Amino acid sequence: MPTCRAQRASAAGFRFSRACIRCAEVLAAAVPLVLGPAARADTSADHPGAAIYREHCVRCHGADGTGTAEVPHPLVGDRSIGQLAAYIDETMPEDDPTRVTGADARLVAEFIHAAFYATPARHDDRPPRVELSRLTVRQHRNSLADLVGGFREAAPVDDGTRGLRGEYFRGRDTDRRALEADRIDQQVAFDFGFESPDPERFEPSRFTIRWTGSVLPPETGVYEFVVRATDAVKFSINTAAYEPPLVDATVSLIDDVVEHRLALPLLGGRAYPLRLEFSKANQGVNDARHERPSRARIALSWRPPHGVLEPVPARCLLPRVGPPVFVPCTPFPPDDRSMGYERGSSVSPEWLAAATAAAAETADHVLGHVAHLARAPRDAPDRTARLHEFAAAFAERAFRRPLSSDLRRMVVDRPFAEAPDLDTGLKRSIMLALASARFLFREVDAAEGDDAFAIAARLSLGLWDSLPDRRLGDAAAAGRLATAAQVRAEAERMVGDPRTRAKLRDFLFAWLRVDHAPEIGKDQDLFPHFSPAVVADLRTSLSLLLDDVAWRDGNWQRLFDADEVPLNGRLAALYGAALPADADFRSVRLDEGRRGGVLTHPYLMSVLAHRDDTSPIHRGVFLARSVLGNVLKPPREAVPPLAAAARPDLSTRERVAFQTGGIACQACHVMINPLGFALEDFDAIGRHRLTERDGGGERPIDATGSYIPRTGSEATFQGGRELAAYVAGSHDAQEAFVQALFHALVKQPVRAWGTGMLEQLRRGFVTGGFDIRRLMVDIMVVAALPRPADVVTTAPSPPADPQP
Predict the structure, then answer these.
(1) Do the Cβ atoms of 698 and 651 come closer than 8 Å?
(2) Closest of 763, 789, 787, 765 to residue 777, by C-alpha
(3) Which runs of E-coded beta strand occur in 419-560?
(4) CB distance 362 to 434 below 8 Å
(5) In this structure, what are the phi and psi dihedrals at residue 160, rounded to the nearest 5 degrees?
(6) Averaged pLDDT for residues 271-287
(7) Is residue 25 predicted with pLDDT exceeding 90?
(8) How far is CA 654 from CA 585, 647, 648, 666, in A?
(9) Rounded CA gap, 78 and 732, in Å?
(10) What is the pLDDT of residue 636?
(11) Which of 570, 574, 602 is CA-nearest to residue 583?
């Protein structure tokens, strides 16, 4: 009998296309291929489990598992044979669960699993395929940003230095001859009082400071910037140096702090130019002897998505100025997430309207900056030729490949020829390119599906959610993407890009099911210090932990064995660490090593809890689904948790066991509860505890848990630390993580590359030391090289290239 999921899938008769086999041969140098025996599972009537099924199960589930009037639901699912056998042993048949136990439960599970329960048995004649898909919303926005950005200078190099460059001048202006100091300021949060930054070099009432650099937003969303100052300020963010400041308060008539606010959308993983100028002087007074003393203050703060107003932290500031980034603001319908990962498949009228509006928004932005983007000022004698060449280069980048002569005539030459002026011609050309299926869809031309430019596009969309850069395009044009080694070399370069870092961060938050920043409210009588500011700090703490593991350490297992938590002064006071009240984030070892990395992080524990108590069910569902990769069906009806006041004599664990003890509940809770119970040693805001309060006072916590893996015997653990140690070595957790990351990068099911590919990648992950970045490279080598030729879609056909 096959023993692992990949072997069972292979044994169930999946067929490989010629392209799949060729892909596996090419990739042998990339990841070691390990496939199990190909013997087909025995589903005949001679299987000993068939007789048990006929005797005890047919009356409810039918001869072929399709159900009966009494039990109309088909007998299908995603449990392994071992998990299914354990469930049958404890709960089936419903009228007398003692009749099918032990070896008999195992035999009937084997028969059911192979005959009609498992996915391979249900889809023996329909092997998974790569599906045609459009760009996701994230891919669309990032592609437009890089499409426009490709015509600007390069982004600033990040050498690890953080803060802003501060230039300090004597007097009211920024004359270089009056420059007295040039330094890196970690933050802009100064209260000079009635003095100057340096009394020996500046007059108290006459100095100017200019801060320049870039802001590095950690995630995509709307950021509100707030400048609070007593005197004249100029402030700009994400604008070119030749553009006027967004805030120009050069005349201050109020002898008090004034707030200036800006809100704008930013894409994570990019650097946005920032300029802030503060001038201290009494307006209209030219003689310093006649100036009256006044207090000088200046502070730069922001409110990030899902956060609270706070000083912009040094870790998000870069002391180098780069070009502005085009951030499209057109709203799109949300992408489909029903498969467990975000992918673009639905082509609705609303989506088409949004794509058209985004094309117009981009064209308007280009026209507003065309003199700099196309190097074509209006008085240039060769402006016509320059705009034609710019439009051709724009279309090439949008289509992710060189233009054929026919495409150039359609997308460039005709729009200009039929337009009344050059600006109209350029706008029409840009909108034609951005409304084309060649931009909006992937794999739109099967004849070009396996060439070097398609490989480059897969790499860039997978790692950056964007277009190939110049270096990747040059490699494709020179034929340097023909082998697994060449593709791997490019992927290894690309994985270090800030855009990859932002994409991995977003994936990890989605994997932990906190990507949408759920609202966290706690009973203020029980948790009086748990405020919105604490929630924002906890989210930052989790982000810093994930970032540290992924980019400094790189070892996936460190996500589960880290016993340190990034804390600042506010969190330290709540979680029992000795830090100054104004301390910035630093890693602190908590609870004498009882922490288990992300699984016990206070933010996650707070999310997976009720307002006034823990929630073993929420925690167990998260572990079973996200971490261990099991599929759980939604409950037939929503049942509110049993309140502690209703049974004050029971612990939280006992109340959950009591409420979910019925046969109908046990279908899922036989797995959920033992996992969630192992985290009972962490309270509703993620503090470690040894006891809990009930109606009779304090009672010891029982944090014993267990899990039956898809292969192997039942595992038991005590508390969050032991649970995390088990997960770090779990085949199920490794497989689930690899599959989730593949889906996040490629936006396709990994089974479309063959039933053995998931196990192949998992083995490579293990032998590669659980290096997350190496796994990303392995996945992209698999996904970028030629793959099955039959591309199908359940979505409507992509729109034809619009005619000018």
Answers:
(1) no
(2) 765
(3) 441-442
(4) yes
(5) 95, -15
(6) 78
(7) no
(8) 38, 10, 11, 15
(9) 13
(10) 67
(11) 570
Alpha carbon distances (Å) from 133 to 137, 395, 555: 12, 20, 32
Q: Which residue has the tokens 């280009």?
A: 366
C-beta separation of 379 from 778 below 8 A: no
Distance CA 768, CA 764 (A): 6
What is the DSSP track for 626-654?
A: IIT----PPPSS--PPPPTTT-TTS-HHH
- Tens of pLDDT, residues 785-803: 985 433 333 444 444 554 4
In-domain check, residue 344: no
- pLDDT exceeds 50 at position 28: no
Res 21: pLDDT = 28
Q: Is there a contact between 356 and 348 (Cβ–Cβ < 8 Å)?
A: no
Helix residue ranges, H only, 66-213: 81-91, 102-112, 119-122, 137-149
CA distances (Å), origin 553, targets 7, 54, 548, 564 = 33, 54, 7, 14
Residue 169 maps to which CATH number?
Answer: 2.60.120.1560
Assess whether pLDDT exceeds 70 at residue 18: no
Q: Are residues 102 and 224 in the same domain?
A: no
Distance (Å, whole) CA 544 – CA 659: 38
By residue range, what is the domain housing residue 57? 5-122
Same domain, 62 and 169: no
Distance CA 252, CA 262 (A): 19
Domain boundary among 700, 729, 758: 729
Distance CA 223, CA 305 (A): 6
pLDDT at position 99, please?
A: 86
Whether residues 578 and 654 share a domain: the answer is yes
In degrees, to the nearest 5, what angle opens at C-alpha 462 toward C-alphas 457 and 463? 105
Angle (CA) 317 582 216, round 5°:
15
Note the pLDDT of residue 40. 38
Residues 6+ apart with CB under 8 A from 531: none
Flag whether 476 is in a domain: no
Beta bridge partner(s), residue 566: 587
Q: How far apart are CA 566 and CA 514, in angstroms?
A: 18
- How many separate domains does the chain show? 3
Q: Is the per-residue pLDDT at 19 higher than 60?
A: no
pLDDT tens sequence across 195-247: 778 777 777 778 999 999 999 999 999 999 999 999 899 999 999 988 999 99
Handedness of CA 170, 175, 181, 183 (dihedral sign): positive
Does residue 312 share a domain with residue 259?
Answer: yes
In a domain, 151, yes or no: no
Helix (H) or strand (E) holding 166: strand 164-170
For residue 88, the domain's CATH number is 1.10.760.10
22-26, 66-70, 459-463: the lowest-pLDDT one: 22-26
- Kind of pairing, strands 564-567 and 586-589? antiparallel
**Averaged pLDDT for residues 260-265:** 95
Residues 112 and 210 in one domain: no
For 346, list phi and psi in degrees, rounded to 5.
Answer: -80, 125
Higher-confidence position of 493 and 4: 493
Quick one: 88 and 180 in the same domain?
no
| Residue in the structure block whose two tokens are 């048949």 | 93
Give me the pLDDT at residue 37, please: 31
- Does residue 444 contact residue 132 with C-beta atoms inside 8 Å? yes
pTM of the predicted model, to two decimals? Answer: 0.85
Number of C-alpha atoms within 13 angstroms, CB side, residue 289? 0
- Given 694, 729, 764, the domain boundary residue is 729
Q: What is the mean pLDDT of residues 90-96?
A: 80
Same domain membership, residue 234 and residue 118: no
My answer on whether 561 and 670 are in the same domain is yes
Q: For residue 804, name the pLDDT band (cuts at 50, 70, 90).
A: very low
In a domain, 787, yes or no: no
Task: Give the length of the chain.
Answer: 804
How far apart CA 651 and CA 658 sit, in angstroms, is: 10
